[in-house]
Structures are given as C-alpha cells and as structure tokens.
Predict the structure.
Amino acid sequence: MALLKYKKVFVMAPYKYATGGVELAHQLVDYLREKGKEAYIFYVSDIVTCKIVNDDNQVTEAYRKYNIAVANSIDDSPENVVVIPESFVLTTPHFKKAQVCIWWMSVENALAWNGNFTDIWKHTQCFEQKMNMFKSILKWMVKKTPLGPVICKLYHKDFIRSKYPYPNNYSMEKVRKEDSRLYHFYQATYIQQFLYSQHFDRIFRLTDYINPEIQTNIDTSVKKENIILYNPKKGIRYTKKLMKIMHGYKFVALQGFTREQLNHLFDQAKLYIDFGPFPGKDRLPREAAIHNCCIITGRFGASGYFEDIPINGRYKFDMLHANYSKIKTCIDDILNNYDVRIDDFAYMRECIHHEQENFYREIDNIFG
C-alpha cells in the first residue's frame, strides 16, 4: 500500500537551473509518468513570491531526455501532492490545501538558502558554511544599518558577497508549526537524523542515484597514476593545509572540465579527497568511486555516516582536530598500494550500482 493517495503530483524546480538536485526532481516526475501517474514539473523563478513560470511550456534543456510535462499553475487541492525541494521550504505557506512533501536533499544548504542564520550556525561544524553565513550577515548590515559605510571600508566588496540570496529567516520553528500537514522525504541518513532531532513527524526515505550513463563511461584500460583529485569548492581550507606538507604530489582540482575530461581524470586518478560539509550524499565522491578511485573524506555531515558514505573509518578524518601527517600517511599507503587498497571500496561501488533500483522502490512505496 502506498503512503499517498492523490490524483496529480506537482514537483517544484528552479527555472533554467541544472544541478544534481534539480535533475533528481525531473527523475521523480519521469518515473511517475512512466508508471502512468499524472505528474508534472513546475518551475519557479522567484521563491520569495513562489512565482510559477507560465510564459512557455519548455522543459529545461538539460532534462529533455526525460518524460516530462510542465504545469504552468498548481491545482491546490487536497486530492493533489506538491513536492518542494528543501532549499525552497519557505514556499510552503503558498500551498494551503494540497498534500505538501518537503524533499530534504541537504541540511546546511537548506538552512542557508532559507536564510536562517541561527539554525545553520547551530547545525553545522564546517568552517566554510559558517563563513558563508557570516558574509550574509555582513551584506545585510551594509544594506540595512548605519554601520554599512564602516563595514565597506573594512572589507572588500567581494568578501561580503553572499551565495545565499534569500534572507527570509524561514526557521525550523516555522516548519514545525506546519508539520501536522507535511511529509518529509530524506536523501541521506544524516538528513534523517536531523529531521528526527527537529521532532518532525512523517519522515520517509527517498534518495537518489548516479546516472547510468556515468556508470558506464568507465575506461579500465587507462593506467592509474598517482593523481589526487579534490573539489576546490568544498573543504578547500583543509585541503590547502594538506597540500602544504605534500610538496611534489600531483593534486588536481575538479573545475573547468567537460564531462568527458572529468571521466578521463577519474579513470586516471588513484584517489579522490573531500573534506567538505556533506550536507547530503554528495555526487562527486560517488562518481569517483565508480571510476575506481579510492576515497578519503572528513567526518562532516553525511560523510560521518557509514550508510551515506560506506567506506572504512580509516579513510575518514576528524578535520576539526586533524593530524595532517596521519592523513599524508594514509594517502601514501593508497598511492603505493593501490591494487590492494582499491578492494576496500568495493562495497561502496556495489551500493552505488543499486541506487537506481532502490530509488524506484522508494518511489513505489510513497506514490504507488
């Protein structure tokens, strides 16, 4: 028996954006429509006002390969379901009658995008996330308080820019007040535990998967080299400290590459490191693992949970009290004994191969 009873499903997505989370929304609609359900994407151009795009009926170009129909308006009825990504949770009050489902694909990103600084400071240990929040506060002070000119003199304009443009302070307390009418879907065990800590009621697993085309674009004939890959946008503070004591090692930042170039780098490299916040199950570590890279992470967010990043604890490090010499020793062991160490990541690769079928089963459990 399915969790929800409904006539139509409307899944929200930001207009003309192409990210992992946005693709996931399209994958949900695609699967529901293939099963004969009446399901639609609806694009929002402004989440503060929840402005629904109605000037055309075109699916975002990156996702035209999916079976998608676009809704230009929402039938806000108890017979229908509206699925909202966690970053847009502040739009919840716009839907008064429909069955509202919040799909939590992250924790820290959700809190930051919804502009609640107290919540994000409380629920994250990652320095970079807190710094982004601090910059948001400074930007607000520049615009709204007499201290603005002083701050502008003290800090360069680029320093106080914010990556989170919607300071609406939509707190977890506000979500709790509406929780009796909400369903919560979680992408990672880390997120599940966060939702439990907020005392939300109806919490259900709805994860994601790495695209099959990525899983099949692997060239095992490429010789593995002593290359260490990293994401320059996440955990860079810790990565730079590590690089300072590892002169002569080849570190490659995963930035500015085409999909084909990225695949080739994954095929070449022996190791991928990521000390970022892991607000959910990040995709890059899984893509690296599929290409037979060994993986080293911190213990922030989802990376601290075996269910989310299923690798041996010897490859996870507490970066708040990091022993960089110990991390270097671990890296040397991987590079020097790659043919043996890669077997330590066989379980992670097996889990990734089953993600799509698990995702479909979870959809069946929820939507029928």
